[in-house]
Structures are given as C-alpha cells and as structure tokens.
Amino acid sequence: MKQLNVDVAVIGGGTAGLGAYRAAKLSTPSVVMIEGGPFGTTCARVGCMPSKLLIAAAEAVHQLERAPGFGVYSSGKTVINGREVMDRVKRERDRFVGFVLEGVESIPATDKIQGYARFIDDNTLQVDDHTRIVAQRIVIATGSRPSWPAAWNELGDRLIINDDVFNWDELPQSVAVFGPGVIGLELGQALHRLGVETKVFGVGGAVGPLTDSTVRKYAAQKLGEEFYLDPDAKVDIMQREGDKVYIRYQDRQGQTQETMVDYVLAATGRRPNVDKLGLENTNLQLDAKGVPHADRLTMQTSVAHIFIAGDASNQLPLLHEASDQARIAGQNAGSFPEINPGLRRSAISVVFSDPQIAMVGSTFRELNQKFSACGCFEVGEVSFENQGRSRVMLRNKGLLHVYGEQGTGRFLGAEMIGPEVEHIAHLLAWAHQQQMTINQMLDMPFYHPVIEEGLRTALRDLQAKLKLGESEAERCQRCPGE
C-alpha cells in the first residue's frame, strides 16, 4: 500500500474541492486532491448548466405560444423534436464539463488521487485499498447527492433524479415531479413547456425557497395556472405497473384522481456526502444530520486542522457559496495554524422558473423569528401585474416584498416572484452587502421604462411605513429577537 505524508489533503474534486485545492496551493506545494468519482462539478454535469439548457429550449417554445398575444401568428403547429432538444442539452453540457476538466488536467498528476477516502483518525485517510495519507490539515469537500424516501426504490428504473434527465435521448410522454423546490420547479415547468405531461407534487406547502406566506401563495397560484402544481399534495398510492407508475392522489379540490406516468422525478432534496467518510473515527462534533459543525467565517470544524466547504457543509448549497467556502477553507488549511475569517457575501438565490423566484439577504421567516416580539421590521410591496414594462412584454405576473428595519431604515432582505427578477435580486444583494438604507437605495437612479421601476415602488411603500429615528432604533436594539 502506498504511503503519503502531505500538508493538506482535500477530499472531493468538484467546485469546492477544486477551489480549496487551488487556495491551499498558494501557501504550500504539499497538497493532494482525492476524488472517487469523475472529476468535474455538479453544476456543469447535472446541475445549473444542463438545467438552464433545458429551460432555454422550453422558453423558445413558450415564446411561440405567447406570440398571438401581440397579434403575431405563425403558420402551422409548433413541433418539438425531443431528440434534438436533448441532443443540444447533452452536447452543450459536455462542453461545459470539458472546460472544467481542462482545469483539472492542468493539475499535476501527483496531486490527484483517484478513490474514496475514509478517516482512520483525525489526521489519517485511507483511499480505497491502495493509499494511506497522513495529512497535517484536511478539507472535506465531498458535495451532496439527491435523497428520497426509501420506499420509492420499489419503482426501480421508473424513479429518476435530475442527473438522469440530462442523459435522456428523447423526451418522455409524462412525468410526476415530487418536490417543488428549485430543481422540481425548474425541471417541472421546462418539461411541461416541452410537451411532457407533467404534475408537480409537494408536501407542507413549500414553493421554491420562499418563506413569506403571501409571496409563496401567489407563486403557487400563478405557476399552478400553467401546469399542475400542488405544494401540499395528498398521495394515496404510488406503485409501479409494468413500465409505468400508477399514482392515486387527492387533487387541490379534494377529489380523488388517478394518473399513469413514465417516470417519477425525485426532487425532494439533497444530503451532504459525509455519511461514508468514517467520521465516527474522528473527534469531529456533528449536528443532528451527521454534518460537522463549522464556523461560517473560517469553515473550521471542532477539530482545529479539519475544514469543510461546499454542499458537504450543509450551509447554502449554491455554486457561488461553494466557491467562497472553498477559498476560505483552502486558504486557512494552507496557512494553518494562522486562521483568518473570509468574506461571506450577502445571501442571494434564484429559481429560473417563469416568473422567476428570488431571495436576498434575510428571509421573512428569519426576520419574523428575530423581531416577532417587537415588530421592528416592515414590509414594502409591489405587484408586477400593472407594472409598465412588465405589461409591455406580456410578462405582468409577480409580487415583490422588501424588508426594512425600523429606526435605522436599513434594508434587511427581500423575497419575490416576477419577470427576470434575477436582475433585481442582484441589485438588492449589492445594496444588502453595502448595508444601505431604504432612503439611500431610493437615491439611486431608476431608468424608464424598466422592470426595476417596480422595485422603486416597493421601496417607496416600505419607506412610508418605516419609523425612523434614534428612539425607534434604540427600542429595536433592545428587542428580545436580537
């Protein structure tokens, strides 16, 4: 068996692993990266990039269907060639993966170790049955994987995850999507627009990441007008019958319905890949889900020389967050025992549904829990249904809530659904990171006519509701929620 002694060992070769490896190399040449599967990132292979390729095809169909609203008509019936759709998805997906692999190929072969790592103790890793590594510092960057109820395994190959969708050669006739989160909404709507009979089922009323009940209810209603969406479904039976899956459920009116689908797409969440690392052989303190506790500013765990980054940390499973965490974890692993807090940017997330859903800063749930005793935040609102530019484009669906702090007038966060709100979310994330007040944000320029004028309306609504001044700020500083 091969024996290695290194300064830093990074477990995982995805976004977080690659980022941590490169950051650690800036401080020491003695770094190895261990990967059990194919190198490359979840985003490029089965996540954000192939899903956007499928969504882009679906949007092309939708544009044709919307054209009569402008008095524009095309001759003949729209034909969707599923084989050509999926060919482009896979072809472009492979290009994105290729760009990542080019970067991996530039890494010295001696720094890349193929195999699955397990902890023997706090400093020792066993990689399959061929290599034992003693590392002075270790970064866990093992990513995450889809999860679903164990009983669904009886569906066999009729049960799929998003990874499987992007390997299809042809589009199926029907799919039931379980989980109206980011993945479920994006893929469910895209498949529907591409001619696949699609039903999306959820549990507990969740719609994407939204926590503001007013925005969430609006989102469920508007998305549900286009395709079947029940965020709190009652499914009585789901069982395989031949090459189909039979589902009996109660519809939104409480009536019993039956359907047969080609596939059940499990979009019910992801779990960090830490359960097979042998963490029981370490002194790491774990949370209730078995994930190591880590400081969000340093990514340092309870064992000083072990760090964690990316989806494995179970903090914010987003690519830009994984990159930030990787940089912080890698730098601190490389420079250990010197530990420095890294920049953690304001939270921002986007669901590429249509209308899009976005979140910025503190969520409504977080603010409600923090300020529930004193009411030290207010909500500004705008509907996009009568917003000028949105109506011009026949995309006038949406609701935006912005949150501000009483006393200081500081912008706290936002939840929204609306046309192209990915752009509004970026503006708001920058304002949040700069800790701007509502008044300062309203001093910024707004062009006419643009969708962002709706943001100004919401900010003005919030401004009118806020009570500013030192006495109000002092009262809110004493709030038990603090």
From TrEMBL:
Enzymatic class: oxidoreductase
EC nos: 1.8.1.4
Keywords: FAD, Flavoprotein, Oxidoreductase
Record-level Gene Ontology MF annotations: dihydrolipoyl dehydrogenase (NADH) activity
InterPro entries to which the protein is assigned, alphabetical: FAD/NAD-bd_sf, FAD/NAD-binding_dom, FAD/NAD-linked_Rdtase_dimer_sf, Pyr_nuc-diS_OxRdtase, Pyr_nucl-diS_OxRdtase_dimer
Keyword Ribonucleoprotein: no
Keyword Oxidoreductase part of the UniProt annotation: yes
FAD/NAD(P)-binding domain mapped to chain residues: 7-326
A UniProt-annotated Pfam family: Pyr_redox_dim
Boundaries of every Pyridine nucleotide-disulphide oxidoreductase dimerisation domain copy: 349-458
Cofactor(s) this protein requires: FAD
Family under the similarity heading: Belongs to the class-I pyridine nucleotide-disulfide oxidoreductase family.
Protein name as catalogued: Dihydrolipoyl dehydrogenase
